[in-house]
Amino acid sequence: MANESKKTTSSEARKTDKGELLGYYRDMLLIRRFEERAGQLYGMGQIAGFCHLYIGQEAVVTGCKAAMKDGDQMITGYRDHGHMLALDMDPKGVMAELTGRATGYSKGKGGSMHMFSTEKKFYGGHGIVGAQVPIGAGLAFANQYLDNKAVSLAFFGDGASNQGQVYEAFNMAKLWDLPVIFVIENNQYAMGTSVQRASAETELFKRGISFEIEGRLVDGMDVLAVRDAAAEAIKHARSGKGPMILEMKTYRYRGHSMSDPAKYRSRDEVTKTRADHDPIDAVKTRLLKEGWADEDELKAIDKDIKAVVKESADFAIESPEPDPSELWTDVLIDVEA
Ligand SMILES: Cc1ncc(C[n+]2csc(CCOP(=O)(O)OP(=O)(O)O)c2C)c(N)n1
Ligand SMILES: [Mg+2]
Asked: What's the 54 CA to ligand 1 centre distance in angstroms?
């Protein structure tokens, strides 16, 4: 099977239980409500610069996180708020960074695209398309060298999957059987360019064939399908068999960033995907169908989450901006003579 890429199917009846599914519901809803609030704060002028929302893609990071163990790492591009929340980074610190406050994860100097937490195993937050992929392979190289059994998950987009450095990373990752999972978040557009317009091979899970890296096509709107695919890939990598590619078919509901005229797709396409394939609605439907929750309980969860998000926004807005002297800190490292 070494160089045969294959498709996995999603099915409604994947194994789960009440506690697990309610957990995913909560985790995905936190990302969605957080992003909605970030969108509002952007509109109010509280967030400046770039801001790329993750709404619609919540199942990808939530399912991957479910398959990770302590010590495993994530690295991604600029659409990164969901990854941080999935890794239990504090929503207050993330929102404060978005609004450029001293209490943010990068002391207000990084903004939306540049946050890190080595404590929570989050390695950024990178603005250069594809740059995180070789760094993710580097994290895996360090894990292999240290023999700590940790796996790194490098997330990138369909657009990034056409970057040269991605293939240099694929080659080395397989050559040395590094414990890295390449998670392609195929939300079908790179800014305003569709996969069909930009890619000679549109089945991105096949992109590892010439490097002997197995790939899987995964329904990225189904958190349980993502969980299962990530579990298989992580097990593969942790056991010393090297990298795998997971192509997560997903969709972003909002524009590429907050300034996107959205002329490249119809309103209908977005509305239809939201109505028919929403990852949170799918979990809600299953919870109701199994009798694991009723509408009132789900509303109560939403209320709790809205309170957490409100608290993070209030904290951010009430926090001070960085002192101008911070311009001179964290620029270069101090090296002793
Ligand atoms: C090297 C480089 N080229 C171009 C850009 C401008 N740019 C920013 S995001 C983006 C699209 C990337 O799309 P994709 O990888 O599909 O990720 P998505 O935004 O859909 O999550 C481009 C071209 C950049 N930041 N870096
Ligand atoms: Mg994309």
From this structure: 14
